[in-house]
Design brief:
- By secondary structure, this protein is an alpha+beta fold.
- Helices cover about 40% and strands about 20% of the residues.
- The longest helix has 25 residues.
- It is rod-shaped, with a radius of gyration of 26 Å.
- The chain starts with 11 loop residues before the first helix and ends with a strand.
- About 5% of the residues have low confidence.
């Protein structure tokens, strides 16, 4: 196989490595741009989503009188609970490793100015792919809990573990992030 070369042959392993780097770079770019579907799990009831979008009040509100509800500024009803994945922060090691690998593979192709262009393109693609892979490896899961407060406003809390409450339960926010039953 003669790729970008006149009269010289590249070792098949180098060609395979170059193809793999290009494919991984393309997949990383597609994943970051949203072209690849991401796996996610939603704990939210479809009826709750429709009711919230329509602006309808929740039917599962529980507890006391209107004066009791007005007295609790930190109280509300859980509207939705959803699990989200959060990409980790890149330290730069993935980008460096990917850039070096891409440059080495890109340097195997072309001659003269073409060789330089392939080296630079390989380094850039490898750095991008390496950074993306590093962020994906450091991904964490969080739970976003949307509350409809007694005053009609909405608040969203985020926590690393699954909440022990269900949609429709009446809760109070304590210490800024913790929920407790009312």
């Amino acid at each position: 196989v003669k790729l970008f070369m006149e009269g010289a042959k590249s070792h098949p392993v180098v060609i395979i490595a170059a193809i793999v780097v290009l494919l991984v770079s393309a997949m990383g770019a597609a994943a970051l741009s949203g072209l690849l579907p991401a796996a996610s799990s939603k704990l939210e009831d479809p009826a709750t989503i429709a009711a919230r979008e329509a602006g309808a009040p929740l039917e599962k509100q529980t507890g006391g009188t209107a004066s009791q509800a007005a007295a609790c500024a930190q109280c509300g009803v859980i509207e939705s609970i959803r699990m989200v994945e959060i990409d980790g922060a890149g330290t730069g090691l993935g980008a460096v490793a990917g850039g070096v690998t891409g440059a080495v593979v890109g340097n195997q192709f072309g001659s003269g100015g073409g060789k330089t262009a392939m080296t630079v393109a390989g380094a850039a693609g490898g750095a991008y792919a390496g950074n993306t892979i590093e962020k994906r490896l450091k991904r964490t899961t969080a739970y976003r809990i949307t509350l409809r407060m007694d005053d009609g406003t909405y608040r969203t809390l985020s926590q690393p573990e699954a909440p022990r409450f269900a949609v429709g339960e009446r809760v109070r926010i304590a210490k800024g992030q913790m929920l407790e039953r009312v």
